[in-house]
């Protein structure tokens, strides 16, 4: 039975900004879904506030709304577009929750919109803990298998405390209902922990509901990905086994596909239970994920939870098996059945089968605890990782070692050469799951731990433990061998050892090992991910390397361009870079090249086998890339390798690739180095006559002291060669400088410290531009809303700039051109400027695609990354203007006056992290980037665009109520006007005594409230923190006080995060917010699709 | 066909070389696994990721060398509950990465030990995917595995492989079936008696019937019509089994007698091919067969798709589009494999008989097709009413 004919248009809801627990995987699934629906001839309407996504590219949907994903805005879109149906299962928890609330408030009924791919009852049954328990009971009654952990549902703290007794005491697991990524859940070992975790959980849960559960810590953990169609055909797409046993969120676990340690009988029980659950829950069509715990002692199966939607695990399962769950879910939602959908990879067999793997897939999480030094790094049932790497090997050891090196983090690969540690100490450390526990386990093995001891400490399945011993034994053989015989070398490679690891063990250089290996003919072959273990011929070249006999890379005629992706998402290098890589692939494919993508991030669109002509799912290390280049050179001509789009990862490989004879296209490695190296870049600026803030490079405290004194405090200090402002701080005096050097001794042991003048009160400006050697195309000029000193990735910004005039743009253009020319850019360059007084300083230049490329591209309706890719391969800007890829005239610096204004806002992960005492971590912005994602607000005026960006990022700005204002002395002056505006809009102001005094002197009434440090008043007057917790404050303005009275601010800001009250930490943000509030109060905030904006812009450009 | 030399501990075997030689001359070099020695058979690949114990003990694999496409084999060791018969039947075993230790609460010993104990010669550490692709492109063929002292020069090994017997034309049921009749009692209240002709039956098949109140009399492959009716059956069952169905003249003639008497009849796998032949259809050898637990089969009576366990190298040649007239009334193809449209089930329209080519007893494999045993029960109920 083919497609339904009663649906002509579908609204798809995306997942919004990247946050922990909801990341790029939803761009992958959403993009697939939109493409499928469009190819079915449906009108696709999309809403997603995240501009750094492929799905929000104007070609992907028919009408793309970069608007906040809130019921209010989505209703406006529905009213305007009148879609027949709404598909809510591909945009994570955000989309699902939005759809449910619009069902519940009657909007869907009012406009006659049908929910497809999910029904509300099924969503509730799957997600509501109590109802789901009933589902599991019903399943057990039918098939005799599956049970829930013993548990109680609680809605108040009293119920929570009583619940522990019912379960027989601590420890207990706390799980809030309806939160994503397990937010707010955790283990409570005593009452204090329970009060904290459950208190937070009750707040986080939209239904004020938490579940307390018996502890099943240490059990084996499994996941199944299932799909069901309307004929009740059900398939299990993939089984996943967690290397880390129960107790660690699956997003934070190392996971393995397929399951490794189940007999068929046990696996079939999980399968039977899974199928019975999807039926009982009533998921009509689409995918779901079910998690199980299995008792290693007796096989007792507990069903942990299900997600009645596409999830992070389903993205992983799709990449792991070649079975595209989201794509097929979209087809099923519009009426097809599984047997009517062809398997893309074989093309001739149907999707109504279960993929079988002849390889092993390992996913490893990537964390960012170094960005949040105060946060507790223990892994729990709340997800904390910010990204992940996946690797494919012909066995577990190979896949594991590839995954670990894909993480691209110092110390992530097994180390066999550092001094052997103390066994007891290491085993004790391995008891607590943390980032890198697997390395601790390996260190314990090196220190003589037995398999039994490792199992005792970690409960990691003995089979996995043995695999670690196997790796260790090979390392020992490598170390003990007289010389590197080909058999031993091949054996080591078959178990995933990198050339670098072998080099370390043998005391050689990595390139020497590589030479020896090549001389001995030990090279990888490339196998195909084909869903069927070679039973049928694969049509899709989706490859992974293996040290096996036969390669499956086919010869080709067309010249290939190899695009290096950006690896696992991390703070500072996220989905934005994937966006640029995908665009390059599309543009170069259109230009007649065969595109070859290399990446190891399963969450992305770049690793969709549909994106490029060939996909290599491989680590982005020099060794792995060189082997791919070699394999592709054997297959046909290679035009070059693109390194400038994937962020720092490929950029870091550029020089070494070139040194190994690999053709790099676009900006040369030497030019890249020129911009990275401070001295050389300084000369470029001098030659161009451009001022840069005074700076110096120090190798010791004495040097740093002298430089800082000369420049004058405050200064900005940071280690050289880092991305995302890692370790960057503003230092106000000499003692702080000494403290900084002490704290960052580790970071700066290898590279010197850079000390810059800190431009207080400067306006920071970001520019993205294209340069072809002759002509500059100014892509866009972004004016930061926060002042200089906040990392550009964490700062909100506006495009076109809202306070810069034509003269400023002219200066920016001239400077940008001078730098692009001086550095030798062929493609994209991003430059950060600071305007202090009348001087335009150059802060830094990056000759590569920047984080803002997708934002700039969307705000100006020009595909910058595509253009950059073409320029890299020789096209000129003039040619691209001629082709229509770039506008005929003008550029991003000459936008028409009535061009829409776009505001980018960063989204911070504060609510994810707690310190070891369980308190929230501070939320102050600084020079080190800590945001995980971004949203875009677009409208015809700045105020509305800003209000939309806030609504998209954090929830709508309040238009009335109580605003609490407490600012640092230096901000007091600039606070007065916006504060007056707030009062004019009807806000009641609350302020601490100092701020209130200033306000009163300026004729603004403010109620004085007690600081947290003052404690509760004699008559029970509450402190500001208590007021926030009581929900009595609607807006918070709190700028940090330097170093002194920090604690108060800290308590205020963490309370704001816990209660989700909008909290502005700069005066500039307050000024913008006031404009936003004004716009909201005026009402009539409309929605407009990117296609409409582009049409308007194009018309204005040509006018 | 298997000759086994002495056993060694699994660790010390890591160094013992082994060679796999295909009849078309391609060879793979790896390490010994299981017993050391030489063995011959038909090379087939199985794509199941779980259930190696069930696969090894499935009598249908008699005289076949099974290549596991899943790289890790042996992880859960060997237990006493999961075998499908009393011994391992495969004549040789090919895996890429055998487990060094078993890990499972039911495990009693390692797979390596078990293979060695039962004298099954295997090979590990070869590019099993390359071998699978070769078999896919060239078709199932004869193969030899040689390890330790059995390794000779390539030409000599190839000659031995080429001299070994073919699967086509092999009559093997009697070699694997029970010699004596035995009874599997009904679980709970007994409702029916079934005579099951053992052509290589798997243990799970009578188990699935017993669960439904059927007392199963398992008869030798050589059983006559008289033997079948001596148990006074409510239904007759023909099992799976190894070999070429075109040689199975005796079971075909027994089946015809059962059809004549209109006793409810159910066949699985080899039993399906025998029903096909009894109805006048031919059988043919598939290029490389169906062996795995992920095969999509459509029940054409309901349109539903089930994910099923397969192990067959031969298939029935019957028209898919329309019912065919036979001496026993009309028959139609009830099930097809959606991957390649191979006939996966036959159903008589005018009398109570049906069969499937795949394995509803599913050991190993998914339980999607268990309803077929209920269908058999309804046929017997219908006959009684």
From TrEMBL, chain A:
The record's listing under CDD domains reads:
MGS_CPS_II
Q: Which Gene3D superfamilies does the UniProt record give?
A: 3.40.50.20, ATP-grasp fold, A domain, ATP-grasp fold, B domain, Carbamoyl-phosphate synthetase, large subunit oligomerisation domain, Methylglyoxal synthase-like domain
The keyword NAD belongs to this UniProt entry's keyword annotation: no
What reaction does this catalyse? hydrogencarbonate + NH4(+) + 2 ATP = carbamoyl phosphate + 2 ADP + phosphate + 2 H(+); hydrogencarbonate + L-glutamine + 2 ATP + H2O = carbamoyl phosphate + L-glutamate + 2 ADP + phosphate + 2 H(+)
Q: Where does Mn(2+) 4 bind?
A: 844, 846
Top EC category: ligase
- Tell me the cofactor note: Binds 4 Mg(2+) or Mn(2+) ions per subunit.
Q: Which residues form the ATP-grasp domain?
A: 133-334, 682-873
Which SUPFAM superfamilies has this protein been placed in?
Answer: Carbamoyl phosphate synthetase, large subunit connection domain, Glutathione synthetase ATP-binding domain-like, Methylglyoxal synthase-like, PreATP-grasp domain
As recorded in UniProt, coiled-coil segments are: none
- Which residue stretches belong to region Allosteric domain? 955-1103
Q: Which PROSITE patterns match?
A: ATP_GRASP (PS50975), CPSASE_1 (PS00866), CPSASE_2 (PS00867), MGS (PS51855)
Positions contributing to Mn(2+) 2 binding: 305, 307
Annotated residues for binding of Mg(2+) 4 = 844, 846
User: MGS-like domain location, by residue?
Assistant: 955-1100
Quaternary structure, from the entry: Composed of two chains; the small (or glutamine) chain promotes the hydrolysis of glutamine to ammonia, which is used by the large (or ammonia) chain to synthesize carbamoyl phosphate. Tetramer of heterodimers (alpha,beta)4.
Protein name, please? Answer: Carbamoyl phosphate synthase large chain
Automatic annotation (TrEMBL), chain B:
GO biological process terms on file: 'de novo' pyrimidine nucleobase biosynthetic process; 'de novo' UMP biosynthetic process; glutamine metabolic process; L-arginine biosynthetic process
Question: What Pfam families does the record point to?
Answer: CPSase_sm_chain (PF00988), GATase (PF00117)
Spans traversing the lipid bilayer: none
Q: Which SUPFAM superfamilies match?
A: Carbamoyl phosphate synthetase, small subunit N-terminal domain, Class I glutamine amidotransferase-like
- Domain called Carbamoyl-phosphate synthase small subunit N-terminal: residue spans: 16-146
UniProt keywords, alphabetically: Amino-acid biosynthesis, Arginine biosynthesis, ATP-binding, Glutamine amidotransferase, Ligase, Nucleotide-binding, Pyrimidine biosynthesis
Q: In which pathway does it act?
A: Amino-acid biosynthesis; L-arginine biosynthesis; carbamoyl phosphate from bicarbonate: step 1/1; Pyrimidine metabolism; UMP biosynthesis via de novo pathway; (S)-dihydroorotate from bicarbonate: step 1/3
Matching entries from Gene3D superfamilies are given as: 3.40.50.880, Carbamoyl-phosphate synthase small subunit, N-terminal domain
Q: Which residues bind L-glutamine?
A: 60, 241, 243, 270, 273, 311, 313-314
Q: What is its EC number?
A: 6.3.5.5
The cross-references to InterPro entries, in alphabetical order and at most eight, read: Anth_synth/Amidotransfase, CarbamoylP_synth_ssu, CarbamoylP_synth_ssu_N, CarbP_synth_ssu_N_sf, Class_I_gatase-like, CPSase_GATase1, GATASE
The annotated region (CPSase) lies at 1-190
Which GO terms fall under molecular function for this chain's record?
ATP binding; carbamoyl-phosphate synthase (glutamine-hydrolyzing) activity
Q: Which reaction does it catalyse?
A: L-glutamine + H2O = L-glutamate + NH4(+); hydrogencarbonate + L-glutamine + 2 ATP + H2O = carbamoyl phosphate + L-glutamate + 2 ADP + phosphate + 2 H(+)
Q: Per its UniProt entry, which superkingdom is the organism in?
A: Bacteria
Q: Subunit composition?
A: Composed of two chains; the small (or glutamine) chain promotes the hydrolysis of glutamine to ammonia, which is used by the large (or ammonia) chain to synthesize carbamoyl phosphate. Tetramer of heterodimers (alpha,beta)4.
Q: Which HAMAP family match?
A: CPSase_S_chain
| Protein family according to the UniProt entry | Belongs to the CarA family.
State the protein's purpose: Small subunit of the glutamine-dependent carbamoyl phosphate synthetase (CPSase). CPSase catalyzes the formation of carbamoyl phosphate from the ammonia moiety of glutamine, carbonate, and phosphate donated by ATP, constituting the first step of 2 biosynthetic pathways, one leading to arginine and/or urea and the other to pyrimidine nucleotides. The small subunit (glutamine amidotransferase) binds and cleaves glutamine to supply the large subunit with the substrate ammonia.
What this protein is called in its record is Carbamoyl phosphate synthase small chain
């Amino acid at each position: 039975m083919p497609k339904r004919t009663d649906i002509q248009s579908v609204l798809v809801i995306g997942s919004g900004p990247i946050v922990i627990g909801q990341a790029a995987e939803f761009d992958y699934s959403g993009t697939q879904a939109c493409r499928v629906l469009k190819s079915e001839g449906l009108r696709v309407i999309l809403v997603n506030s995240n501009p750094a996504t492929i799905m929000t590219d104007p070609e992907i949907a028919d009408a793309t709304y970069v608007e906040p994903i809130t019921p209010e805005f989505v209703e406006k879109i529905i009213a305007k577009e009148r879609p027949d149906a709404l598909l809510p299962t591909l945009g994570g928890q955000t989309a699902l929750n939005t759809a449910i609330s619009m069902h519940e408030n009657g909007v869907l009924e009012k406009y006659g919109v049908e929910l497809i791919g999910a029904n509300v009852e099924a969503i509730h049954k799957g997600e509501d803990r109590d109802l789901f328990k009933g589902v599991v009971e019903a399943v057990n009654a039918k098939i005799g298998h599956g049970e829930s952990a013993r548990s109680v549902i609680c809605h108040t703290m009293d119920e929570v405390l009583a619940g522990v007794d019912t379960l027989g005491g601590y420890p207990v697991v706390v799980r809030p209902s309806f939160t994503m990524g397990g937010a707010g859940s955790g283990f409570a070992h005593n009452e204090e922990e329970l009060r904290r975790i459950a208190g937070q959980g009750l707040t986080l849960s939209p239904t004020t509901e938490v579940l307390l559960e018996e502890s099943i810590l240490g059990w084996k953990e499994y996941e199944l990905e299932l799909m069901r169609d309307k004929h009740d055909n059900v398939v299990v797409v993939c089984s996943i086994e967690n290397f880390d046993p129960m107790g660690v969120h699956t997003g934070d676990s190392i996971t393995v596909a397929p399951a490794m340690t189940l007999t068929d009988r046990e696996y079939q029980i999980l399968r039977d239970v899974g199928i019975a659950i999807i039926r009982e829950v009533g998921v009509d069509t689409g995918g779901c994920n079910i998690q199980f715990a299995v008792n290693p002692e007796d096989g007792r199966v507990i069903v942990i939870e299900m997600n009645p939607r596409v999830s992070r695990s389903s993205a992983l399962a799709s990449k792991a098996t070649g079975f595209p769950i989201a794509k097929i879910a979209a087809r099923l939602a519009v009426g097809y059945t599984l047997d009517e959908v062809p398997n893309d990879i074989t093309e001739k067999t149907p999707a109504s089968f279960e993929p079988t793997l002849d390889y092993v897939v390992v996913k490893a999480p990537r964390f960012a605890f170094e960005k949040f030094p105060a946060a507790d790094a223990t892994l729990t049932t709340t997800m904390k990782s910010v990204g992940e790497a996946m690797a494919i090997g012909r066995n577990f050891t190979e896949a594991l070692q590839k995954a670990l090196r894909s993480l691209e983090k110092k110390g992530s690969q097994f180390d066999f050469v550092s001094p052997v540690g103390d066994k007891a100490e290491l085993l004790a450390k391995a008891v607590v799951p943390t980032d890198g526990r697997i390395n601790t386990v390996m260190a314990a093995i090196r220190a003589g731990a037995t398999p039994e001891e490792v199992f005792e400490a970690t409960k990691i399945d003995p089979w996995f433990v043995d695999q670690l011993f196997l790796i260790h034994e090979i390392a020992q053989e490598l170390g003990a061998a007289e010389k590197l015989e080909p058999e031993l070398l091949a054996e080591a490679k078959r178990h995933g050892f990198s050339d670098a690891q072998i080099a370390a063990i043998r005391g050689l250089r990595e390139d020497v090992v590589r030479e020896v290996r090549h001389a001995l003919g030990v090279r990888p072959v490339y196998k195909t991910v084909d869903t069927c273990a070679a039973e049928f011929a694969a049509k899709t070249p989706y490859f992974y390397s293996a040290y096996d006999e036969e390669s499956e890379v086919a010869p080709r005629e067309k010249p290939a361009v190899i695009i290096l992706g950006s690896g696992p998402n991390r703070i500072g290098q996220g989905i934005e870079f994937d966006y640029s890589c995908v665009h390059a692939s599309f543009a170069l494919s259109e230009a007649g090249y065969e595109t070859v993508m290399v990446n190891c991030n399963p969450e992305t669109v770049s690793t969709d086998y549909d994106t490029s002509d060939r996909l290599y799912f491989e680590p982005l290390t020099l060794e792995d890339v060189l082997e791919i280049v070699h394999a592709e050179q054997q297959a046909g001509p290679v035009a070059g390798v693109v390194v400038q789009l994937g962020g720092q990862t490929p950029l870091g490989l550029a020089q070494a690739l070139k040194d190994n004879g690999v053709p790099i296209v676009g900006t040369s490695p030497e030019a890249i180095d020129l911009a990275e190296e401070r001295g050389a870049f300084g000369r470029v600026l001098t030659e161009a006559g451009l001022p840069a803030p005074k700076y110096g490079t120090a190798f010791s405290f004495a040097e740093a002291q002298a430089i800082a004194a000369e420049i004058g405090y405050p200064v900005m200090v940071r280690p050289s060669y880092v991305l995302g402002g890692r370790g960057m701080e503003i230092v106000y005096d000499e003692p702080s400088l000494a403290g900084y050097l002490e704290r960052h001794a580790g970071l700066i042991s290898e590279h010197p410290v850079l000390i810059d003048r800190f431009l207080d009160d400067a306006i920071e400006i970001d520019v993205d531009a294209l340069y072809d050697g002759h002509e500059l195309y100014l892509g866009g000029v972004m004016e930061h809303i926060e002042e200089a000193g906040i990392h550009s990735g964490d700062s909100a910004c506006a495009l076109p700039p809202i306070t810069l005039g034509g003269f400023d743009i002219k200066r920016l253009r001239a400077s940008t051109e001078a730098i692009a020319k001086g550095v030798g850019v062929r493609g994209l360059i991003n430059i950060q400027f600071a305007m202090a007084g009348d001087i335009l300083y150059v802060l830094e230049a990056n000759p590569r695609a920047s984080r803002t490329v997708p934002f700039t591209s969307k705000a100006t309706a020009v595909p910058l990354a595509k253009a950059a890719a073409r320029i890299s391969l020789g096209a000129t800007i003039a040619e691209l203007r001629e082709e229509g890829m770039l506008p005929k005239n003008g550029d991003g610096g000459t936008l028409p006056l009535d061009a829409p204004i776009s505001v980018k806002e960063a989204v911070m992960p504060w609510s994810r992290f707690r310190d070891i005492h369980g308190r929230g971590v501070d939320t102050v912005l600084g020079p080190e980037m800590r945001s995980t994602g971004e949203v875009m607000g677009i409208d015809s005026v700045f105020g509305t665009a800003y209000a939309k960006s806030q609504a998209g990022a954090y929830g709508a700005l309040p238009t009335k109520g109580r605003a609490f204002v407490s600012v640092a002395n230096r901000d007091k002056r600039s606070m007065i006007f916006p504060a007056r505006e707030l009062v004019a809009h009807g806000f009641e102001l609350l302020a601490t005594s100092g701020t209130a005094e200033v306000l009163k002197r300026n004729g603004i009434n403010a109620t004085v409230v007690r600081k947290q440090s003052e404690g509760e008043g004699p008559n029970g007057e509450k402190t500001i923190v208590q007021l926030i917790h009581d929900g009595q404050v609607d807006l918070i303005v709190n700028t940090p006080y330097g170093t002194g009275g920090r604690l108060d601010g800290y308590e205020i800001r963490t309370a704001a995060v816990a209660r989700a009250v909008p909290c502005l930490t700069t005066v500039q943000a307050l000024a913008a917010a006031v404009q936003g509030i004004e716009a909201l109060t005026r009402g009539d905030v409309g929605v407009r699709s990117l296609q409409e904006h582009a049409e308007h812009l194009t018309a204005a450009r040509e006018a | 066909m298997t000759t086994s030399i002495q056993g060694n501990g699994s660790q010390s075997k890591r160094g013992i070389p082994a060679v796999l030689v295909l009849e078309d001359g391609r060879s793979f070099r790896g390490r010994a696994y299981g017993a050391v020695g030489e063995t011959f058979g038909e090379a087939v690949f199985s794509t199941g990721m779980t259930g190696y114990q069930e696969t090894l003990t499935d009598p249908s694999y008699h005289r076949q060398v099974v290549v596991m496409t899943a790289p890790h084999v042996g992880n859960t060791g060997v237990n006493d509950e999961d075998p499908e018969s009393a011994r391992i039947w495969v004549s040789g075993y090919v895996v890429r990465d055998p487990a060094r230790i078993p890990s499972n609460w039911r495990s009693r010993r390692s797979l390596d030990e078990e293979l060695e104990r039962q004298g099954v010669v295997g090979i590990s550490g070869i590019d099993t995917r390359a071998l699978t692709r070769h078999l896919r492109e060239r078709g199932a063929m004869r193969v030899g595995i040689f390890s330790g002292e059995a390794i000779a020069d390539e030409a000599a090994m190839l000659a031995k492989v080429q001299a070994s017997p073919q699967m086509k034309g092999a009559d093997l049921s009697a070699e694997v079936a029970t010699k004596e009749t035995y009874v599997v009692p009904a679980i709970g209240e007994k409702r029916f008696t079934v005579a099951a002709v053992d052509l290589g039956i798997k243990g799970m098949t009578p188990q699935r019937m017993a669960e439904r109140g059927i007392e199963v009399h398992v008869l030798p492959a050589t059983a006559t019509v008289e033997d079948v009716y001596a148990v006074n059956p409510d239904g007759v069952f023909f099992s799976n089994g190894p070999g070429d169905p075109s040689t199975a003249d005796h079971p075909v003639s027994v089946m015809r007698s059962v059809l004549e008497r209109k006793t409810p009849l159910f066949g699985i796998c080899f039993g399906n091919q025998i029903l096909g032949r009894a109805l006048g259809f031919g059988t043919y050898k598939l290029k490389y067969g169906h062996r795995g637990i992920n095969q999509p089969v459509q029940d054409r009576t309901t349109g539903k798709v089930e994910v099923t366990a397969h192990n067959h190298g031969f298939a029935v040649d019957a028209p898919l589009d329309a019912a065919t007239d036979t001496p026993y009334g009309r028959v139609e193809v009830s099930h097809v494999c959606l991957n390649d449209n191979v006939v996966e089930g036959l159903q008589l329209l005018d009398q109570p008989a049906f069969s499937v080519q795949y394995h509803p007893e599913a050991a190993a494999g998914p339980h999607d097709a268990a309803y077929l045993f209920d269908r058999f029960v309804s046929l017997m109920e219908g006959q009684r009413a």
